[in-house]
């Protein structure tokens, strides 16, 4: 069964479908090719939703598609308006009935891959409901509404504009059937509202916007027209990015730009002091003979050390307390809202066991030992089995990141066991920035980085992100994976050498 359109109730439609999102940004971390937005306008019951659904069905195999309905943006009604609405005497077809400013802002945010929260509207209750719907990260957005092509601010956001042209008798017949069945209306009510508001509004506002459309689609028997649209969208999306990991692995430190050759000396990289204790833990973790039990024990110990070091990078303010001797002691207290977000690699199916709660990862236990009630989240980032490119499969972020007002002042410990090519790290940082987290508030906590690859990528793209690591190895080597049992193919993989192997697999398998 398809999910309902976010933000509309009493309306039988649809869809956010996702097969993992490939990078929506370049090696410099900046977003490329905003989401592809299709605006679909037409009279009430002309078939806008039907057209949008058919496009989504035909594009099911694409990364993520979303239908955004103008109906979500009906303004709140006061008591007097509510009474009129229930008597079918409220004009809900005038452009002023829609909060177009909010509509355009939500769409702009989504198009730019930022998070947004859209309102929910109930046709049955004639009212905006208290809950909002969090949306983030669609590659294709289909906007549908009677006045979707009316406002220039909205028109500017569309890559393709469609008008559904339908015979007015057919529209009235469909509306009667639908509003009685789905929106709790009577025959009399629908006809009164239609003659008084819907028909005149179509003639004055909706119909004339057909002139802005790139394509006019008939309101019935329209599969050929929909096919043409689908092929156009496919072509546009195919022009987008490929070979991302390979591109990243070619990013080299630009010594001519005055970069230090040794990652250990970079200002944004904090390497733990290489004490005998730390080197002892590394030796156990690097040893392929280490049992899983020991691996978990020492990985947890190492995680605590890395997190403790990361805590030094957070802001503190002066504080004074009275001691048991009655004296005043002056000290410091943490002055930051902090959360942890683990990057979970679905390299091995075993990691998928983390999916229901989507928290976890080998550094999480260490973080919780240091910050007991820390809010947690996770990003599931998988390598595409055939191309090896990173895919964002699922994101589950803590409330302080989902709320944009809090996100800007939240510090995030981003947790991953190692930074190889930097592809997963870059994706995770991009997700946090899209939600409003400040670059300088992200601290990447990891066991291992390499001189080549990832750190260079991250420093170029996000120089204010700091990395706390327990070790730096010299080489990032590219090779080929084992034969995939299902596809019979190998794919390109990168390994830090000497390294610790796939730390997540050794921890969870
Ligand atoms: N091309 C079509 N062929 C058959 N039925 C259609 C077609 N387009 C729309 N309908 C039907 O007409 C009704 C109204 O269509 P809908 O897409 O909900 O209209 P709108 O979103 O424009 O208000 C629905 O019951 C829908 O199934
Ligand atoms: N409380 C409301 C709000 C809006 N309407 C009608 O909905 C029509 C737009 O939705 P479509 O799915 O038909 O495009 C519009 O014509 C409004 O009259 C309503 O009946 N009740």
Automatic annotation (TrEMBL):
Superkingdom as given in the UniProt entry: Eukaryota
Stretch forming the signal peptide: none
GO MF term set: ATP binding; cytidine kinase activity; uridine kinase activity
GO BP annotation list: CTP salvage; UMP salvage
Enzyme Commission no: 2.7.1.48
Keyword terms of this UniProt record: ATP-binding, Kinase, Nucleotide-binding, Transferase
Phosphoribosyltransferase domain span: 274-508
Biochemical pathway: Pyrimidine metabolism; UMP biosynthesis via salvage pathway; UMP from uridine: step 1/1; Pyrimidine metabolism; CTP biosynthesis via salvage pathway; CTP from cytidine: step 1/3
EC category name: transferase
Limits of the Phosphoribulokinase/uridine kinase domain: 37-219
CDD domains according to UniProt: UMPK
Reaction equations catalysed: cytidine + ATP = CMP + ADP + H(+); uridine + ATP = UMP + ADP + H(+)
Membership in a protein family: Belongs to the uridine kinase family.
Protein name: Uridine kinase
């Amino acid at each position: 069964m398809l999910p309902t359109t976010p933000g509309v109730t009493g309306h039988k439609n649809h869809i956010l479908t996702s097969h993992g999102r490939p990078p929506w940004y370049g090696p410099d971390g900046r977003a490329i090719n905003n989401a592809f937005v299709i605006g679909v306008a037409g009279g009430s019951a002309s078939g806008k939703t039907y057209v949008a659904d058919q496009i989504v069905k035909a594009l099911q195999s694409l990364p993520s598609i979303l239908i955004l309905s103008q109906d979500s943006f009906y303004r709140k009604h006061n008591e007097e308006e509510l009474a009129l609405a229930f008597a079918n005497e409220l004009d809900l077809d005038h452009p002023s009935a829609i909060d177009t400013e909010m509509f355009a802002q939500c769409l702009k945010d989504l198009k730019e891959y930022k998070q947004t929260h859209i309102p929910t509207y109930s046709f049955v209750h004639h009212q905006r409901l208290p809950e909002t719907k969090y949306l983030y990260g669609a590659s294709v957005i289909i906007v549908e509404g009677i006045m979707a092509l009316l406002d220039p601010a909205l028109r500017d956001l569309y890559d393709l504009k469609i008008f559904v042209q339908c015979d007015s008798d057919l529209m009235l017949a469909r509306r009667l059937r639908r509003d009685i069945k789905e929106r709790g209306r009577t025959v009399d009510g629908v006809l009164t509202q239609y003659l008084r508001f819907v028909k005149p509004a179509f003639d004055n506002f909706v119909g004339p916007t057909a002139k802005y459309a790139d394509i006019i689609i008939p309101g019935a028997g329209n599969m050929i027209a929909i096919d043409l649209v689908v092929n156009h969208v496919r072509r546009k999306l195919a022009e987008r990015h490929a070979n991302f990991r390979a591109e990243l692995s070619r990013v080299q430190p630009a010594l001519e730009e005055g970069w230090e050759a040794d990652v250990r000396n970079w200002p944004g990289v904090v390497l733990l002091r290489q004490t005998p204790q730390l080197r002892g833990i590394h030796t156990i973790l690097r040893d392929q003979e280490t049992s899983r039990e020991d691996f978990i024990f020492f990985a947890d110990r190492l995680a605590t050390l890395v997190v403790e070091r990361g805590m030094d990078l957070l802001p503190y303010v002066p504080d004074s307390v009275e001691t048991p001797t009655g004296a005043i002691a002056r000290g410091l207290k943490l002055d930051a809202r902090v959360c942890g977000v683990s990057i979970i690699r679905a390299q091995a199916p075993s990691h998928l066991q983390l999916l229901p709660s989507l928290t976890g990862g080998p550094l999480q236990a260490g973080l919780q030992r240091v910050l007991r009630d820390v809010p947690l989240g996770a990003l599931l980032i998988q390598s595409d089995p055939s191309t090896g490119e990173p895919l964002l499969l699922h994101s589950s972020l803590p409330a302080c990141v989902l709320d944009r007002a809090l996100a800007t002042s939240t510090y995030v410990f981003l947790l991953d066991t190692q930074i190889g090519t930097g592809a997963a790290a870059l994706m995770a940082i991009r997700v946090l920035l899209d939600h409003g987290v400040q670059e300088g508030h992200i601290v990447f906590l990891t066991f291992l980085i390499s001189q080549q690859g990832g750190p260079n990528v991250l420093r170029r793209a996000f120089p204010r992100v700091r990395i706390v690591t327990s070790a730096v190895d010299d080489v990032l080597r590219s090779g080929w994976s084992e034969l995939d049992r299902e596809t019979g193919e190998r794919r390109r993989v990168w390994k830090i050498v000497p390294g610790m192997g796939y730390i997540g697999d050794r921890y969870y398998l």
